[in-house]
Amino acid sequence: MIRFDHVHKRFPDGTVAVEDFSLEVPSHQVAVLLGSSGCGKTTLMRMVNRMVDPTSGSVWIDDDNVADLDPVALRRRIGYVMQSAGLLPHRTVADNVATVPVLEGSPRRAARRRALELLELVGLDPGIADRYPSQLSGGQRQRVGVARALAADPNILLMDEPFGAVDPVVRRDLQRELQRIQADLGKTILFVTHDVDEAFLLGSNVLVLRKGAEVAQSGEPSQIMAHPADDFVAEFIGGPRRRLHTETRDGVQAVIDAEGRVTGFVDQGAG
Amino acid sequence: MRWVVANWDQVVSLALNHVLLSVLPILLSLVLSIPLGWWAHRRRTARRVLLSGSGILYALPSLPLFVILPVLIGTQILDPLNVVVALTLYGVALMVRSCTEAFDAVDAGVRDSATAIGHSPGQRFRVVDLPLAGPPMLAGLRVVSASTLSLVSVGALIGVPSLGYFFTDGYTRSFLTEIIVGIVGTVVLALLFDALLVLAGRLLMPWVRATDTRREDR
């Protein structure tokens, strides 16, 4: 379980990134922080592994206030995946995946064996183990990033726009892969994104954030979609793009959005 | 050539001396510049002092420095240590800037992610900053190596034996062959050192070649 208790963050230059934020992410659940850039969502995430310390308020993991934990030890037991994957460019794929186990004193050979297993788990050919990150595609790098985050078998994963830098097709693959892994492993995941579809696909609980990490609305995806709390949320999750109706066009039932554009067709076999 | 054969023993012994006098300053300037460069990379005041200081240091003419050093550090005037200390100063003067800029150039995102996954500050320095700063540092060290090998010759003027002796001796005797031997010998040593440094770089930093995008032969 991750719990934010009235956290507030003011940076030394005076900008307030987080006004007053509270949240509880139950164990084995995926919570998504959804908002545009600069809304404070990354700052919130980085409070969990103490990359940022809140100015006031506290962050708890189970019964521990993270402020009382050693930051290095804390970070090693939390998986972290970021947008550019953040891999070490001078270490091979296997060494990258094995980073945390090796830092924790695991013997090299065991760490390598584990790294190869993890590559398979995230859908990669273990044959790429001795390549360097720059020799991989963007999608492969992100998978390696996920494998590395899982290496020490953490209970918690922090994912900061992990699929933001890859093309839409690869992104969908990665999202499906993450769902599959999550179904197996049941981690507690805090996921940050500005992509509405991604948030609604992955999150059991989604928080739409305004500037200063103010929660505009939180709840299950279907609930937010059906009943946006205000214009800000409605606009953010798609506005007219989400208000759909059907018309018959060229003899088939077409789905039309509020601006009159065809966005899809009703599947005649369904229902 | 006949002169070289006749004086082969002297050529070898002076070349050896030349090497010994150069190796220590080259290694010392690397070892000293890494912490200084890290310091300058981290602290703005240290950067200002070290980088402008090193510029001034390098501008000092070498011969007066060789002469004045014994007074400053209490050595004999003919002590080879003077040459070693002076050349280390020049090496550091060049190398501090290389190291500072090498640390500056390490990708901030990589550094940040290394911290985020649990490297302690010391581990991050050893596993991330130092190796990633390695290639530009090596480039700097190759300059230091060439510069040191040529500056060692100046020591001959104060009687510290090296291949530079052939310049002074050849000059006083107006004997061109001897001067040419001195020059060629110094150049050969400089090339040899450079090759060794490049080789060491390949062994210590295997990723540089493996990921070089200019070699599209995969």
UniProtKB/TrEMBL annotation, chain A:
EC class of the enzyme, as a word: translocase
EC number(s) given by UniProt: 7.6.2.9
GO MF term set: ABC-type quaternary ammonium compound transporting activity; ATP binding; ATP hydrolysis activity
Pfam families cross-referenced by the UniProt entry: ABC_tran
SMART domains: AAA (SM00382)
UniProt keyword list: ATP-binding, Nucleotide-binding, Transport
Ranges where the ABC transporter domain occurs: 2-237
Domain of life according to the entry: Bacteria
Presence of the UniProt keyword Cytoplasm in the record: no
Name used for this protein in its record: ABC-type quaternary amine transporter
From TrEMBL, chain B:
PROSITE patterns linked to this entry: ABC_TM1
GO cellular component, one term: plasma membrane
Tree of life domain: Bacteria
Cited InterPro entries: ABC_transp_perm/SBD, MetI-like, MetI-like_sf
Record-stated family: Belongs to the binding-protein-dependent transport system permease family.
Segments forming domain ABC transmembrane type-1: 15-200
Keywords noted in UniProt: Membrane, Transmembrane, Transmembrane helix, Transport
Source organism: Raineyella antarctica
Any single biological process term in GO: transmembrane transport
Membrane topology of the entry: Multi-pass membrane protein
The protein's name in its UniProt record: Osmoprotectant transport system permease protein
